[in-house]
Amino acid sequence: MSDNEINDLSDAELEAAFKSAKAEIGSTVTITNEPDVDYDDEVDELEQPDVDSDDDTSANEEDEKEVEDDSDTENEDADESAETEDEQTDNTEKQSDEVVQPTQEILKVKANGQDYEFTLDEMKSQFGSIFAKAQDYTKKTQALKEYRKTIDIVQNAGLSDNDLNLFADVLKGDKDAIAAVLKRTGVDALDLDTENVNYAPKNYGRNDTELAIKDIVDDISADKEYVITHNILEKQWDSKSREKFIEDPNMIKGLHIDVKSGLYDKLNPIMQKLKIYDGATRSDLDYYFMAHKQFMDSQRDASSKAEKAELARVENQAKVAEAEKVSTVKAKMAQQTATKEASVKRKAAAPTKKAVGTSKINYLNDDPSDDEVEEWFKNIKQP
After folding, report:
1. Which 3-state string (H, E, C) describes the chain?
2. Any domain includes 31
């Protein structure tokens, strides 16, 4: 219908044409809009993955950035570790360049009351010859043991080699030797009664116990502490104790060792207290043995307590180390959880991509004006 034909229509005809056109347009719009509606749905369906993809892409970019940051941090740590190792290597090389003389262990040996110092190398180098000499000395000493009393007699009597040879000749019946003895001693041969001889030789030597005591005293007398040991035995302790030391001379050396080590100074107060409490009914040596037992018992108790305390300390240290390990693991797990939560929050906060806009159909109002109908009609007729 042309514009002139529309203008020639009456109001009733125009209204009828409007209603007819409106119905026709409504049908056309319905048909025309279906693809648009479907298109919008398709766009939404097609575009939505793009939005998620953009979100994922953004999140992935963030994750990749975090990985890069972590990688950079690891690389920095690796570089720092490498630098530290290089510094340590340099320090080690510098130290190796310096000539450091190893400190040799010094061994102290006391002999004849005098202290001697030897290095371990010296001891090793001399061990062979010293051991051989010691073996030879031991062998010779054992061989002389049976002549120990004879030697002591000779020493006590002040006899010389010539005296011994003279007596040997006398025993063999050498008249000249006998005459020499008579002349030396000023004895008249006529005064001798060879028929009734009641001679019993005197003992100029010492018995085995006395010789053992002499050997021990000779061994310890060079020590400065010997004066203390001698004073204890001769002046402080009672006669019963001295008799026991004579019976077993090795106890003299044992007491001297206690004096040298300082153990005697620890036992003497305990010994004196026990002696007072008991009324001095026993020998000093007995009280000394009692004090020694009491002291060693207390030392064992103290050692047991120290061992228990050390065991408790080690166990407590292990518990602390385990607690620190658990705390470290928990801290790492919390850090990992926080990192995951932060990643989820970043993804949720990432901007979404808007869907592609679609054209909307300009529907007529329920009560359009004539101009609106005319303008609308022109628009829909345009291709």
Report:
1. CCHHHHHHCCHHHHHHHHHHHHHHHHHHHHHHHHHHHHHHHHHHHHHHHHHHHHHHHHHHHHHHHHHHHHHHHHHHHHHHHHHHHHHHHHHHHHHHHCCCCCCCCEEEEEECCEEEEEEHHHHHHHHHHHHHHHHHHHHHHHHHHHHHHHHHHHHHHCCCHHHHHHHHHHHCCCHHHHHHHHHHHCCCHHHCCCCCCCCCCCCCCCCHHHHHHHHHHHHHCCCCCHHHHHHHHHHHCCHHHHHHHHHCCHHHHHHHHHHHHCHHHHHHHHHHHHHHHHCCCCCHHHHHHHHHHHHHHHHHHHHHHHHHHHHHHHHHHHHHHHHHHHHHHHHHHHHHHHHHHHHHHHHHHCCCCCCCCCCCCCCCCCCCCHHHHHHHHHHHHCC
2. yes
- Averaged pLDDT, 112-141: 78
Give the chain's end-to-end CA distance (angstroms, integer).
16
Q: What percent of the chain has pLDDT over 70?
A: 67
**Torsion sign across C-alpha atoms 232, 234, 235, 237:** positive
Q: What is the pLDDT of residues 87-116, one digit of tens each?
A: 565 555 555 555 555 677 787 777 766 778
Amino acid at 101: Q
Domain presence at residue 259: no
pLDDT at 27 over 80: no
How far apart are the C-alpha atoms of 382 and 377, rounded to whole Å? 9
Domain count, the chain: 2
Helix axis angle, 208-220 relative to 148-157, nearest 10°?
Answer: 80
**Domain boundary at 178, 193, 208, which?**
193
> 259 pLDDT exceeds 50?
yes
* Average pLDDT for 305-322: 88
183 is a domain residue = yes
Using the predicted structure, report yes or no on whether residue 297 has a pLDDT greater than 80.
yes
Question: To the nearest whole number, what is the mean pLDDT of the chain?
Answer: 77
Q: Which domain holds residue 4?
A: 1-64
